[in-house]
Write a structure and sequence with these properties.
By secondary structure, the protein is of the alpha+beta class. The chain has a single domain (about 30-250), classed as outer membrane lipoprotein receptor (LolB), chain A, CATH 2.50.20.10. The protein is built from four helices and 17 strands. It has helices spanning about 15-25, 35-45, 130-140, 140-150; strands spanning about 50, 55, 60-65, 65-70, 75-85, 90-100, 100-110, 110-115, 125, 155-160, 165-170, 175-180, 185-190, 195-205, 215-225, 230-235, 235-240. The radius of gyration is 20 Å and the shape is globular.
Length: about 260
């Protein structure tokens, strides 16, 4: 007896096909005067919303790669590896990178910033870097979506050049986020350290190499401060399944 092979599409769950189709075309455009709808579309596009109640369930992420440049002072560093670990619930971020055979670990958590010899190792206070690192944590795509929602009525929506734009405060900084046709953040403008900071996010994908999560991060990240490129990363891999990410503040940095 011979059985006719089923079409490949018949072997793929309908939810997967629907999700694939949604990633290939833009959703219906929300009204430019509806910031809550636009924030929802941004969260949904990144893959933050889960379950029937569509709750934001992305609390911790990591991403890393082996290609990038970073400017420190007057030096442009060629990175041979980098790893970024972020905890959004207990706000903290660790950037662990290697250049010219040297390893540097930059951390922020709460109201403290410091450098470490190794993750969790000997700490050197970096109070002058606190404000910038705190801001950088929330200028990541997922951080932007969380802060846009948190800002509530202070979040405004508009259209510029045919693209949807959200404007909202992060602390004392006003941030403007232009979204792409899938409502993923693609251009961010803010003021940092008295200079204009512009961030470009492109080529979004589920970069998890083991357990796919349908959480989408940009493969390319470019930052410019005052018109000068200060960061250019190509992300190879991510873990968006809420990995174990902590950065406890060293006891000697805790203010009484």
């Amino acid at each position: 007896m011979h059985f006719k092979a089923a079409p490949i599409a018949a072997l793929i769950p309908m939810a997967v096909l629907v999700g694939f189709a949604q990633r290939q075309s833009a959703p219906s455009p929300p009204a430019a005067n509806d910031p809550k709808r636009l924030v929802f579309e941004m969260q949904d596009a990144i893959g933050m919303l889960r379950g029937l109640q569509q709750v934001d369930s992305v609390n911790r992420i990591e991403y890393w790669g082996t290609t990038g440049t970073m400017v420190q002072g007057a030096r442009t560093l060629q990175l041979s590896s980098f790893r970024v670990s972020i905890n959004y619930n207990v706000a903290g971020m660790r950037v662990d990178f290697t250049h010219d055979g040297q390893r540097e670990v930059q951390v922020v958590a709460g109201n403290a910033a410091w450098n470490e010899e190794t993750p969790g190792g000997k700490a050197t206070p970096m109070p002058s870097a606190l404000a910038d690192r705190q801001l950088q944590l929330w200028l990541t795509p997922i951080g932007l979506a969380k802060k846009a929602r948190e800002a509530g009525e202070a979040t405004k929506a508009s259209v510029e050049g045919g693209a949807p734009v959200l404007t909202f405060p992060i602390g004392s900084t006003t941030v403007k986020v232009r979204l792409n046709k899938l409502y993923e953040p693609e251009q961010v403008d803010a003021q940092a350290g008295g200079a204009a900071l512009a961030i470009s996010y492109t080529d979004y994908d589920d970069l998890n190499d083991v357990a796919k999560a349908d959480v989408f991060l940009p493969r390319r990240i470019v930052q410019r401060r005052g018109g000068t490129t200060i960061l250019d990363l190509t992300v190879a891999t991510s873990n968006t399944n809420n990995p174990y990410v902590i950065m406890p503040v060293p006891p000697d940095l805790v203010k009484p």
